[in-house]
Design a protein that fits this description.
Elements: E1 3-9, H1 22-36, E2 39-46, H2 56-67, E3 72-75, H3 78-81, H4 85-97, E4 102-104, H5 114-147, E5 159-162, E6 167-170, H6 175-186, H7 192-201, H8 214-222, E7 229-232, E8 235-238, H9 247-260, H10 267-270, E9 277-279, E10 286-295, E11 300-309, E12 321-322, H11 323-336, H12 341-388, H13 394-421, H14 424-444, H15 452-459, E13 460-466, E14 469-474, H16 478-481, H17 494-498
Parallel strand pairs: 1-2, 1-3, 3-4, 9-13
Antiparallel strand pairs: 5-6, 7-8, 10-11, 11-12, 13-14
Helix pairs in contact: 4-5, 6-7, 6-9, 11-14, 11-15, 12-13, 12-14, 14-15
Length: 506
C-alpha cells in the first residue's frame, strides 16, 4: 500500500492573494485523503518561496522517500511542490527510480506513466513560467516607478506610502521632527545618539517600542531623499516627492558626519615588525611606539621606534627594544639561515643533475608499468574472445575477469601516482634553495626593512622576545643552514636535503 506524505506550502511573497492558506490546504488534503482512502503518514508545512532550491521541509520529505519510509506525495497543486527546474527534476527522478510511486492532487490528475510524467513536467514548467513572468513584471513595474520619479521601496521616516495613489507622501505627524533633527545635527553639537534620543522622546520608536538602531539614524542623515533625490541600484533619480530640507542643510550635515567619523590608522604600515613576535614572559603581543628628538644643528627632527610587550595579561618585567636593534637581530637571523649565491648555484646544479638521473629511472619504471598494463589488457581481450566463443564458462569468466580488472586498476593507479609525485620533492627543494638565497640577499641589502618580516616568517616561526633578544623555531631545512659550519663556506649536500622530502615549501 502506498504511504503518502502531505506537503503544504504558502509563500509570503505570492502575488495571488487568493491562494489557499496552509490551514486551508491541510483541511482540503485531509478531506481528499479520506474521500480517496489514502494513508497519510505525515504532514509537512512550509512558509517559503519555491522560486529557488533550498526549502528545508521539502528536502526533508524527499530524504524520507529516498529511505523508503514513504512512497507517495499528497499536495494541493503541483506548483506547491516546485516552481524551479531543480526541485521539479528531483520529483520526476524519484518517479523514474521507483522510490516515489504516486502523486495525488485534489486540483489535477496524475498517473505514474510516461504520459503522466510528461504532463507533470508541463505543470512544473508552467509553475516556473509563472514565477519568471511575475519576476519580470515586478522588475518592469519598478523601472516604470523609477522613470516616474517614485521611490520603489518603503518610505523613510518623515514620509509614508500612499497605497491608493501608489506614491510617497509627507507624513504630517513626523515631518516637523525630521526637519528639526537635521537642523540640530547641522549645528555640530549633537551626535547620532542625541538624535536617537530626540526621536524617542517625541514618539518615534522601533517596532518593539525601543530606541531606533544607530545605523538607521546614520542612514537617515546621509540620505539625499530628504532634499528631493534618491539612489537606487547605483543610479541617482530625481524624485517627485516633496523635499523636507534644503540641499544646503543636507550638505552641512554631511560635513559634520565626515568630521565626526573616526579615521583608523593601520599601524602595521607604520611599524614594520608588528605581528611578528610575542612576549615570552606573558605571551602578550609585541606593540610599537614612536618618539621624536630634535637636533637643531644637525639632523633636525628624527624619529625613533621602540618595540615592547603590550602587557595585555598583567604585569610583565620585559623592557623595550629599539627599532634598530630589532631590525639588526632579524637581519642576523636571515643571514645565519641563508645561502650564499655560489653555494646556492652549486646546489641547484646538483639538484638538476639528480633530477635528470631520477627522470631516467622514472621513465624506466613507468615503461615497465605500462608494459605490464598492456599484458593485462591483452589477457582481458583473449578472455573475452574465449567467453564469446563459449570456450570458457560464465562463472570462470567472471572470476578471472574480476582479478584482471583489479590488476589493471592497480597498474593504472601506480602509473598515475608515479607521474604525479615523481618530482614533487624537486620543486620543494628548489623552492627551499631559492628562499634561502633570497634571505641572504635581503639580509645584506639596505633600506628594505619592510621586506624583513616577510622573509623572517619564511625562515622560522613562533618568534618570542625575551630579555631584548628574539627567539624562534627554524623551519625544516633552515635549521641545518645554521649549523656550526657557516652556510656561505660549507654548503649542504643535496642528499642531506633529500632525506627530508617533507621540507616546508616555503
Amino acid at each position: 500500500m502506498v504511504k503518502y506524505i502531505a506537503y503544504c506550502r504558502k509563500s509570503t511573497d505570492e502575488a495571488d492573494r487568493q491562494l489557499l492558506s496552509i490551514e486551508a490546504q491541510i483541511s482540503e488534503l485531509k478531506e481528499f485523503a479520506k474521500r480517496e482512502n489514502l494513508e497519510v503518514v505525515d504532514f509537512f508545512t512550509e512558509a517559503k518561496t519555491a522560486k529557488k532550491p533550498g526549502r528545508e521541509k521539502f528536502e526533508q520529505m524527499l530524504k524520507l522517500i529516498e529511505k523508503g519510509e514513504a512512497n507517495g506525495i499528497l499536495s494541493w497543486h503541483a506548483d506547491r511542490l516546485a516552481r524551479n527546474s531543480v526541485d521539479g527534476g528531483k520529483i520526476i527522478y524519484l518517479l523514474d527510480t521507483g522510490k516515489l510511486q504516486s502523486l495525488k492532487f485534489p486540483t489535477l490528475w496524475f498517473e505514474n506513466t510516461p504520459q503522466g510524467k510528461f504532463m507533470l513536467s508541463i505543470a512544473f514548467g508552467q509553475s516556473k513560467y509563472y514565477i519568471d513572468n511575475l519576476s519580470e513584471n515586478v522588475k518592469r513595474g519598478i523601472r516604470q516607478k523609477l522613470r516616474n520619479g517614485v521611490y520603489p521601496n518603503k518610505a523613510p521616516i518623515g514620509y509614508l506610502n500612499e497605497l491608493r495613489k501608489r506614491s510617497i507622501e509627507v507624513d504630517p505627524q513626523t515631518e516637523r521632527l525630521v526637519r528639526k533633527a537635521f537642523s540640530l545635527f547641522a549645528t555640530g553639537k549633537y551626535t547620532f545618539v542625541d538624535i536617537d534620543k530626540f526621536f524617542f522622546e517625541h514618539g518615534i520608536k522601533s517596532s518593539t517600542n525601543k530606541y531606533l538602531r544607530m545605523d538607521k539614524i546614520r542612514c537617515m542623515l546621509k540620505s539625499p531623499f530628504y532634499y528631493g533625490v534618491f539612489d537606487f541600484a547605483g543610479e541617482t533619480y530625481q524624485g517627485t516627492h516633496k523635499p523636507l530640507i534644503s540641499k544646503t542643510l543636507f550638505d552641512k550635515c554631511q560635513e559634520i558626519i565626515k568630521r565626526k567619523s573616526k579615521t583608523h590608522i593601520n599601524h602595521k604600515d607604520e611599524f614594520w615588525f608588528l605581528g611578528l613576535a610575542k612576549c615570552k614572559e606573558c605571551h602578550s603581543t609585541i606593540t610599537a611606539e614612536k618618539h621624536f628628538k630634535f637636533y637643531p644643528k644637525t639632523r633636525g627632527k628624527v624619529r625613533y621606534d621602540y618595540y615592547r610587550c603590550g602587557k595585555k595579561h598583567g604585569y610583565c618585567s620585559q623592557k623595550y627594544v629599539s627599532g634598530g636593534e630589532f631590525e639588526k637581530q632579524i637581519r642576523e637571523i636571515l643571514w645565519t639561515h641563508s645561502l650564499h649565491e655560489l653555494n646556492a648555484r652549486k646546489m641547484l646544479n646538483w639538484l638538476h643533475a639528480d633530477e635528470i638521473q631520477e627522470r631516467q629511472s622514472g621513465e624506466t619504471k613507468i615503461s615497465l608499468f605500462k608494459s605490464q598494463l598492456f599484458n593485462v589488457e591483452q589477457k582481458l581481450d583473449r578472455l573475452l574472445t574465449g567467453y564469446l566463443d563459449q570456450v570458457i564458462e560464465t562463472s570462470e569468466y567472471q572470476t578471472v575477469k574480476k582479478k584482471l580488472i583489479e590488476e589493471k586498476t592497480n597498474f593504472e593507479e601506480q602509473i598515475s601516482s608515479f607521474e604525479k609525485n615523481q618530482f614533487a620533492w624537486v620543486e620543494l627543494v628548489r623552492d627551499f634553495i631559492n628562499s634561502a638565497l633570497s634571505a641572504h640577499k635581503i639580509a645584506r641589502a639596505k633600506n628594505n626593512g619592510e621586506e624583513l618580516p616577510f622573509f623572517a616568517k619564511k625562515v622560522g616561526s613562533n618568534y618570542f622576545l625575551s630579555g631584548g633578544r628574539l627567539e624562534f623555531v627554524p623551519l625544516r631545512g633552515f635549521n641545518a643552514l645554521a649549523a656550526p659550519a657557516p652556510a656561505a663556506s660549507a654548503p649542504l649536500s643535496i642528499h642531506d636535503l633529500r632525506r627530508g622530502r617533507d621540507l616546508n615549501s616555503r
